[in-house]
Amino acid sequence: MDWNAPLTALPKIGEKTAKLFKKLDIVCAGDLLWHLPAYYRDLRTPVPLREIREGEEVLVRGRLTTPPRWGRRQGKFSVFSFEVADGTGVLLIHIFNLPFLFSRYKTGQEYFFYGKPKVFRDRMQMDNPLAYPPGETPGILPFYPLTAGISQIMMRRTVAAALREVRPPETFSGGLCAAADISGDGESFRLVHAPQTPEEYERGRRSMVYRELLVFSRMLALMDKGEISREALRFPENIVEEYEALLPFACTGAQRRVMEEIAGDLRGKTPMNRLVEGDVGSGKTAVALFAAYAAMQAGRQTVLMAPTELLAGQHFAFAEKIFGRRAALLRGSCTKAEREEIFARIAGGEVQVLVGTHAVLYHELPFPALDLVITDEQHRFGVGQRAALLRGNPAAHTLILTATPIPRTLSLVLYGKAKISLLDELPPGRKPVATHIVGQQKRRDMYTWLRGKLKEGEQAYVVCPLVEPSEGFSALSVEEVQRDLSRFFRGFGVEMLHGRMSGEEKREIMERFRSGATQVLVSTTVIEVGVDVPNASIMIVENADRFGLAQLHQLRGRVGRGDKESFCYLVSDGSGLERLRILKSTNDGFAIAEKDLELRGGGELTGQRQHGKGSLQVSNLVRDVDVLLETREMLERMPEEFPEDYAKATQLALEKIREGDAQVVLN
Ligand code: ADP
Ligand code: MG
């Protein structure tokens, strides 16, 4: 079957089911192969019944010691039960609403059962486990991301059909695969979707990662600016002091050091390519605007790009204090007239610093001498956009800001000869944010406490995982929490904020919060990236276990910015406590990121797919940095040994660059 064949060409898939699959971006048969498992369960070795624990999914093996018996039936509802034993213990099994299975189970027969045991009236029981006769266990069972209307069983069956029917095109030659010790495309898909052992899965994944990173490495090589020489910028010797005098605060030692490093680069005869890494709140914006200031003193212009409109607005507010009318903000939502007005000011030489989101990339900017591009990346690694923006001036200086600690090897590969500056000191007077983990049963107490704080004039963020209540997700949503808290905090302003609102709406809501007109902001993680409201001193995260540690740390960084004592409450139903305790124990973002990596890198079988064309789909740059290095070595050999594969990698890399989407998200 052709890779692009419609889903309906597969057995048992009609128009209706195809529509459901479309919600998962699965349109053609080949898309099914790219729908990778979210996780796996190892169903090869059963656990003795004596050792199973409540709430932990396990595979057990047991013989029926009683015949199945019907429980009370009501209308369509049915249940039957039986007991199984394995010599170490007994387990009671209930089968709900699957009456046709009743006649399948007979006393003395042996089965494997996979499910989540629970204790009820002092007995261990399992409801509706997956059951397999001996010899028919699936080995390693994949679990896929789903949507309403598609079950795991249906997904597995459909993917299996695609595996049988579709012959994926092979990207590289057999010779290259052998040299790299990877499997071809078709075999990799089989290993990832239907592994017999964890090693098979690992090999399948590594092969896919290798192919992806080989193209990625080629892309980096194509974008490398190499050693271009350029004219040095000239500005006063004491420029750092001059700049600091314009700021409302005294700089930290680290800020001064990094500014000197930047000044040194700008005075150099090769383009600056510097990465500034600093924890949340370390004051990266002031450092970035220093670079813009120095460029301006040398008669050159700067573009500063932020990841969100909200942040761009905030950076602009800071920039305006220093640069006045010489700074401008280009919003995605600008009308044509507004945009043209800004462009006229740029062309006329008034605007020296343009702040915006990555949307600025889509415009030809009429700068007389654009010479510095600053990117505030937060969690992202952007590599493509620099190339895009610098079409006009490939020798321009670049500065990248990030709050994510990037392992050194990786940052060197990604940013070429990037020099790295660490902002390893927080501005004085910051109190560490007191962090507490709160059980669900204590939520009311916490909100009662918060009411007292609001009366004292404090402000709080409440972050929820969802925008609206969603079936199948037992997590709180912004909408329901906002409704709930408006009632609970009568007399105070409780507003919500989420990514589905328009830029204008978001800005107005943020402004009301900033000015103190509202006291509580219930939000999704849109506030994660760098929102700065010094008076807000309390952060509550609902269903905290749903978030990554680095993300929680970013969220917590929204408070503790003023001089007040600050608090962060992580509400959890008891899952993920080990991870959450790390946050409680330290305020050091870099330590947290390392711990997080350690905990997650623990050999657990996980696959993940990031949506969006062009971005890496299977690779995790941090985890797969070794593979990345291998592919770089391979690239060196390829022109000689595998010229056809080299041409293919180049072609694929060029396609990616042309798509303009060389964005890579670090998670
Ligand atoms: P981040 O590194 O997270 O981007 P910001 O640049 O947003 O941090 O700075 C966080 C806050 O700290 C801002 O309100 C900023 O004005 C303030 N700030 C930055 N540097 C200093 C300093 N040296 N002293 C006092 N406040 C500072
Ligand atoms: Mg910032």
Automatic annotation (TrEMBL):
<keyword id="KW-0227">DNA damage</keyword>
<dbReference type="GO" id="GO:0003678">
    <property type="term" value="F:DNA helicase activity"/>
</dbReference>
<dbReference type="Pfam" id="PF00270">
    <property type="entry name" value="DEAD"/>
</dbReference>
<protein>
    <recommendedName>
        <fullName>Probable DNA 3'-5' helicase RecG</fullName>
    </recommendedName>
</protein>
<dbReference type="InterPro" id="IPR033454">
    <property type="entry name" value="RecG_wedge"/>
</dbReference>
<feature type="domain" description="Helicase ATP-binding">
    <location>
        <begin position="265"/>
        <end position="423"/>
    </location>
</feature>
<dbReference type="InterPro" id="IPR045562">
    <property type="entry name" value="RecG_dom3_C"/>
</dbReference>
<keyword id="KW-0378">Hydrolase</keyword>
<keyword id="KW-0347">Helicase</keyword>
<dbReference type="InterPro" id="IPR001650">
    <property type="entry name" value="Helicase_C-like"/>
</dbReference>
<keyword id="KW-0238">DNA-binding</keyword>
<feature type="domain" description="Helicase C-terminal">
    <location>
        <begin position="456"/>
        <end position="598"/>
    </location>
</feature>
<dbReference type="GO" id="GO:0016787">
    <property type="term" value="F:hydrolase activity"/>
</dbReference>
<dbReference type="Pfam" id="PF19833">
    <property type="entry name" value="RecG_dom3_C"/>
</dbReference>
<dbReference type="GO" id="GO:0003677">
    <property type="term" value="F:DNA binding"/>
</dbReference>
<dbReference type="InterPro" id="IPR014001">
    <property type="entry name" value="Helicase_ATP-bd"/>
</dbReference>
<dbReference type="GO" id="GO:0006281">
    <property type="term" value="P:DNA repair"/>
</dbReference>
<dbReference type="InterPro" id="IPR011545">
    <property type="entry name" value="DEAD/DEAH_box_helicase_dom"/>
</dbReference>
<dbReference type="InterPro" id="IPR047112">
    <property type="entry name" value="RecG/Mfd"/>
</dbReference>
<dbReference type="Pfam" id="PF17191">
    <property type="entry name" value="RecG_wedge"/>
</dbReference>
<dbReference type="Pfam" id="PF00271">
    <property type="entry name" value="Helicase_C"/>
</dbReference>
<keyword id="KW-0547">Nucleotide-binding</keyword>
<dbReference type="GO" id="GO:0005524">
    <property type="term" value="F:ATP binding"/>
</dbReference>
<keyword id="KW-0234">DNA repair</keyword>
<keyword id="KW-0067">ATP-binding</keyword>
<dbReference type="InterPro" id="IPR012340">
    <property type="entry name" value="NA-bd_OB-fold"/>
</dbReference>
<dbReference type="InterPro" id="IPR027417">
    <property type="entry name" value="P-loop_NTPase"/>
</dbReference>
